[in-house]
Amino acid sequence: MLCLTVNANTAAAEYVPKDYVWTSPSRNSSESMPCGGHDVGMNVWVENGDVLFYIARSGMFDENNTLLKAGRWRLSLSSSPFTGADGQFTQTLRLSDGAVYIKGGDAEVRLWADVYTSAVYMEVKSARKTDATLSYESWRYRDRQVTKAECQQCSYKWILPKDCTTFADTIRAKGSTLDFWHKNREQTVFDFTVSRESLDDIKSQLYNPIGGLRFGGRMTAPDFTFTGTSDGKYASTDYRAWHFKASGIKKSTVTITLYTGDEPQAAPSAKTSRKRSADWWHAYWQRSNIQLRVKNKELRNSALTKAVRNYELFRYMLGCNAYGEWPTKFNGGLFTFDPVYADPKAPFTPDYRKWGGGTMTAQNQRLVYWPMLKSGDTDMMASQFDTYLRLLPTAVARTKHYWGHGGASFCEQIENFGLPNPAEYGKHKPGDDPGMERNAWLEYQWDTVLEFCSMILQAHFYAGMDITKYEPLIIQSLQFFDEHYQYLAKKRGVKALNGDGKLVLFPSSGCETYKMAYNPSSVVAALRVVTEQFERYKQMKGIKDVSSYALDSTFKNRLPEIPLRTIDGDTCIAPAVVWERIQNVETPQLYPVFPWRMYGMGRDGLQTARNTYQKDPHALEMRASKGWKQDNIWAACLGLTDEAVRLNTEKLADGPYRFPAFWDPGFDWAPDCNRGGSGMIGLQEMLLQEAPDGSLLLFPAWPDGVDASFRLHATDGRIVEAEIIDGKITHKVMKNVK
């Protein structure tokens, strides 16, 4: 480990990521390869000689808040070049330009998405003339009743109405053009949720992004002509195919433009898109990278080598939704495939995923976005930040309606319209507090929004992002805790504060795990750190007063201290002062390490945090690398190298599907994006950490004997480049990019 305090400017070599290549076709959609850009994701694979791909786009939410795919495309060439029988087959994800190349015999197909619009391109080339059939396959050619077993795909979950239906799309083909779209009814799960949660009186104040929403796409295939339809079945689902045929072609380009609204916008030419999208991806890989210096065959196939590669492959997947209106979903993102291949008990349509399409589960979503600070991808964080900003008026209105005070309350299982998921909201009887989720896991859990507030502030500290528009979100999220816990205290007794003049955070919740808790350490840490970060931001911006947002300037003085306890004679962070029960398998007593960084390398109390990690019986019992578990991050933050290596290589090991960054469902769904995000964070922390004074800690949890280099980002606009060879740091650079 080295504290880096010098400032140097040294030109770095251009970074070109390695291609990822398959040399044989796939068996089914679970063996697909990701491709995308802007807000579009494709699953691409070759099966029985046909090129197939799904297209998904951020924000295609139907009446039930299922995130629908645009459809499935199939290309068949009469020359049959892609069977792999001749041993000449390759399917390549070229990370350097963000495209997938399929080659076989004398033919090639190139697929990519434009980075600046929601458009997809497919270029087909053949050395000799060939006939071709291009088919659009849709399972939404008819209304489909959502069964009770499928309820997880939408927001109704286990309170699914008997008549819940995924309504048919409108699909029209003529000549060389195909149009398809879905128009939501005005009455949706939003209206159901508003009534269920006793909010009809303020319905006009609430954000509704799905009522009447229209979204769809247009395919233009100049060399093809529509010839008719046929019916078939893929995996578990029947479909109708719209067939377009071409005769004797050697080269053809197909354009598919996706849109929200009445009509698609004009797409750039394939030539323009190809160049500008490749340029964007090239620049993307220059932002940051992690490389191992492989000296022998043993290291070439090591678990750490695979972890570094899968870090990069997952970062590519995140880049495919760089500029979506909605954030990358933790439960599969834009790359879910036929669910029967993820769970044999789920023989449903390709639109299915567990934990909903429009449900923005905060505890999971956060892990997708934290690593973007160090990877230099702060521009991509706006999708998540803007989502919370759109939900702010609803959070303020429901707080005022339920409790009569100020601030903004954001729940954990929150919908894309800002209200608690209607099933998770629970059953309420007369006299119950209608603002509380009657749910054993979720009751009194309001603090997850503070992680996104912290991300917003750190996006400013890291990259100088203008966060002026987010100031009300940060302030009113803090204000809620101040006013609500004084409100609850006054309902219990005369005083709003305890004898020391501090807030009494009760009832509260340490994640979903320590329930009915008094001053849980995760909530205390969140409030203290976000308040401190906002104070720093105010000083940097010269903001002297926030009274217009009704946040009391003395709020920070009312925040309690982190609760501690003694285990085997050593001081540890306590989950809370007291709690009634343990409900889940999280470890909130280590949240003061990450995400809140009150304890750790270069900080006071490092041993206290290590004691917690190593001795807390619940922390030990709950330790795992599955899904959203964070032990890999904490081990790295605490400089526990052996643990960090073990857990991060487990976290970023190859998934069970053909593409190694398609991880199993874990606690959620496949590909598991919160596993990918937590793995990225853990690997970054092994390489680079930052002390409170801004000094940088290089390779603080990196194993001996492994040579590596990285380019990552730090606060104050710094890009940090470092290399470790034979245990010595031989190259280090800090660049000010402001």
Automatic annotation (TrEMBL):
Q: Return one Gene Ontology term, BP aspect.
A: carbohydrate metabolic process
Q: Which Pfam families match?
A: DUF5703_N (PF18961)
Domain DUF5703, by residue range, is: 21-290
Organism this protein belongs to: Marseilla massiliensis
What's the protein name?
A: DUF5703 domain-containing protein
| InterPro entries noted in UniProt | 6-hairpin_glycosidase_sf, 6hp_glycosidase-like_sf, DUF5703_N
